[in-house]
Fold:
Amino acid sequence: MPQPSQRLLTDAFDLPDDTRARLALARESLQRSGLLTFRALGSSMLPAIAAGDVLTFRTAAPGDLVPGRIVLAQTDNGLVAHRLLSCGGSIFTTRGDSLRVADAALDMSRLLGVLAAHYRDGNALPLDRDHHRLLPRASRWLLRHSPQIHRIARRWPRLTILTA
Amino acid sequence: MSTALYLLRSDNVAARQIGEELMIMSARDSALFSLNETAAILWNAADGSTPLAEIVSRDICPAFDIDAETALRDATELAHGLAERGILQVGNQPFDAGSAST
Amino acid sequence: MTDNARPHSLDVGIGGVHVRLRTDSPDFITLMADRFRGFVGHVDAPDHVFDVDIVPVTYAEDESLDGITTEVRVLRDGPKWRLLCGDFDAEWDPRTRHGHVRLHPSPYSLDSVLRILHTVMLAEQGGMLMHASSVVLDGKAYLFTGVSGAGKTTISRLAPDHAHLLTDEMSFIRLEDGEYFAYGTPFAGELATPGANMRAPLAGIFLLAQGPDNRIDPLNAGEGIRAVMANILYFAKDDALTAKVFDNAIALAARVPVKRLTFFPDARVWDLFGPTA
Structure:
């Protein structure tokens, strides 16, 4: 059973300087111990994760980054635990289970870890034990990731209509 | 470009015109797309039976300062891009009559 | 409406919709009454009735309640809806307004079932659940939405003392006679307290952003719709209902102003809210 790190990050949003400090601490914790424990906020991962759940993430190993896995991402607003939609090349995308639109794609350097343990009211919850089992029914929509907004632009200059 | 290309709007999407942009919601993969005027012209004309070349010459060239060859090349690339995202189907033959969505 | 096999019941009223839960477990009723406190109370004629069967947690034996699968599936099964997850298996018939749920004995399980059910019910009538906090100030409701960490809970926490918190995380919006109302819900977020059991006309939706100053900026129609769509709570992959959700977002953004609120996290942000917000 992984040992939780020493500090729980509770507020995802506070003074900007404090957020940066917390993020820096989170990264350092992961680098040093390979683990980070985090209290879930919000409801974007309902029903899998409820506000107040305690999540432990570990640094990802090769083969960990399978679509369907819950991962920890560093966004401009702080740390977010969402489900991995896709990763390839230099970017990855995630989405909250209860949201309709995927998160903005992020650089792989912002993927901090994968879910290693999940506690609710002091009880350990099992993790999805077979992500491949998720794939057959989820693959239609999980693997074909889409960033939040596609803007498909093809601009040609308009003709100027001259009238006599 | 020797092979005609036919376009058909996908039927598992919802498209709504909001001001100058055409917003398309795909139920399949929860993607929300925003098409500008040109892409919207292609999408709206994608009835499954009109060749892309005809759509370009009929709807695009008269309105934009662009030659037919360039317009068709760009429109083909755009069509394939929309198809990759699942909101359009492309084929080398007309799609079945009555299968075009509105 | 009585059921001899499930003699214990609890009426939960959220957003003007009353659901009667029937079960054979008095302990579960006690658990639910506590979880939904402020939103329970007997009604003579509930809008929906749900029979609840508690299933022990055995990971291997029950195929649908494996206790492990965390992703939820919301499927249309003919005229009925089916909600499936590792800890619950629910079925609901909107024609008969009757449902049945098998679930693990966890308050979170039923909470999830009710939330998901409300997303479907509301979608059908033009409303929605949104990842947003909502506050009533001077008789008007304001919604605050945005990405995780944008400050939904923070801004609700900074509201003046005379404001009423409807929810710090899960806003309930109903369309009634052409007007949108925000309702309080018991679905608590990190504040871990249920919202006030009240409603108010929805006066504005604000997309949150961090910044050193407090300001409100307009969004164009497309931006407003995207802000709403990105934060609607919705699970079903049904084409028809997805199109309805899309139309609901468009209608909402057309009727209720959607703006960007950039704020510094202290109480002065609420000075922006008044009759002209």
